């Protein structure tokens, strides 16, 4: 005999019989035969060890013990129903938790659009966002502590997959008092004598590589000053005249009154970013995020290409 204490069908039969006051009416409501309902109520009574209903010619009604049992069983059954429903929704990626790390601005741009759209479509998924170093990010993704990481470049981590998502045209951030602040666009050659401020974070190597690639030549190396500060203070230093830096389009979503972003009109450089995740990650919410990211990426790629072409026409 099945464990009736854990069989929600038997509890449901008892609840419906109590509500209808009749085995026949309860059976009709469940599209079952009256004998089937009667037998299962008897099995349930045998299992719990007490009569749950008083039978009479006019129908049935719960015994005092049966009334308490049905009241408490109905409460427990509803909780189990909710638990099963929640489990089903989590399996489909409609509820749950998603832990991600990002190394890009949420002021505007691709990543801001993805997270806003994701939260709108799946409001019951709790998104936990953090910022971390490259080493901590890699360790978090590999260990499963983090579901995904949005980071610059196209990373290669053992046991992980990466998907290139978006690229942003580059701008030169200069002080509003800089001679180039009023320009509609600048070329790399205009920047040869500038001091470039680069943050000592995960973006640093990517930005430095772009600068070196564009400006290094025989007997010449650009002046690069590595600063152990975040993006906000790096741009504040630019505003104070310590140097210039490269900035992606999304950075301009935040307000930096002392800084002007001048389009870089030559070179075709784009700041690329990807999402990386462990191949062992089975979080259904992660698949939802990856599918949505890939879909939005197509739109942003077309938009970024248009912006880049417009910038390149400036000079």
From TrEMBL:
SUPFAM superfamilies: Periplasmic binding protein-like II, Winged helix' DNA-binding domain. GO terms for cellular component: protein-DNA complex. Keywords: DNA-binding, Transcription, Transcription regulation. Signal peptide: none annotated. GO terms for molecular function: DNA binding; DNA-binding transcription factor activity. Pfam families: HTH_1, LysR_substrate. Residues 6-63 form the HTH lysR-type domain. It comes from the Bacteria. Belongs to the LysR transcriptional regulatory family. This is LysR family transcriptional regulator. It comes from Blastomonas natatoria.
